[in-house]
Amino acid sequence: MTFIVKTSNLWKSYGDKKALVGVSLHIPEGEIYGLLGPNGAGKTSIIGIISGILRFDKGNFSIAGKKHVSQIKNLVGLVPQDAQLYYDMTCLNHLIFFAKLQGFNKLAAKQESLRVLKLVDLFSEQNNKVGSLSHGMRRRLGFAQALIGSPKVLILDEPTNGLDPSIAKSIRLLILELKKSNTTIIFSSHNIYEVEEICDSIGILNKGKLIKEGLIKNLKKTNSVFVSVRGLKKEVIKRIKKKHYVKRLNEGLNSLEVEFKHGDFTNDLLKFLIDNSLVIDKFKKGESLEDIFLDIVGKK
């Protein structure tokens, strides 16, 4: 696996407040990487550093092997929550303006602007003023603006925040389409379900620290079961721990979480509990991203 974005022991403070505490991220090339965390976790600081608009106190980071801001600025496209849009300009002229700022000449700027308008399905809106667009269309125009110059990395800061469900869905579909062009996408969000739906890998931040990182499918424990049970006794728990398929057992007040060494032994476990005259209220197989997230941010 090739990592296009790497950070190593990044620290960032604002006065006495530590925003990032030794964060080391590894973002795979061509994938959608979810940056997940509660408010104040450090997501905004990470985005600022990777996009080259914020300096860090110490540590290292690189994009496609480049480390200096002057080398990485054209490798990254940023779609902030509120992109800077000029409402009195047409969509085409708006994009031409930003393309010229990146060094495109007049003809190349127009060609590039038409290209990105097609990418975000706004080609038919090219001669309409930005101010006449719907909220969802303006969000797409923000994507087009960030895609000028074909950046290797596209950073999305809460891209569906405040959008109607149908418009949010269209934005998610657009993101998945962009992934097909091998664009690496960093998806910053506090929406766990959205991250789980479209991201390949995640990094979970809490209080400025990277707590967990990796492929979602590897982080989620598919070979485990949670059982809410009444009448649980110490002797029964000891016997479960001795089962050949049990890798780990967490005991709650009236619950068990059992992780299997391999395979799925849920039926065997439930039968054992029933045979020992225990009452099972409910059980759930596997672990969701929400379970992982709440386990992390819920800790004091």
Notes on the protein architecture:
This protein is α/β, with parallel strands linked by helices. The protein has a six-stranded mixed β-sheet, sandwiched between helices. It folds into two domains: 3-217, 3-Layer(aba) Sandwich (Rossmann fold), CATH 3.40.50; 224-297, Alpha-Beta Plaits (2-Layer Sandwich), CATH 3.30.70. It has helices spanning 43-50, 69-72, 91-101, 106-119, 135-147, 165-179, 192-198, 216-219, 234-241, 266-275, 289-297, and strands at 3-14, 17-23, 26-28, 32-36, 58-63, 76-79, 153-157, 184-189, 201-206, 209-215, 224-230, 246-251, 255-260, 279-285. Helix 6 (165-179) links the parallel strand 7 (153-157) and strand 8 (184-189). Helix 3 packs across helix 4 (106-119) and helix 4 (106-119) packs across helix 5 (135-147). The mean pLDDT is 91. It contains eleven helices and 14 strands. The longest helix has 15 residues, at 165-179. It is 34% helix and 29% strand.
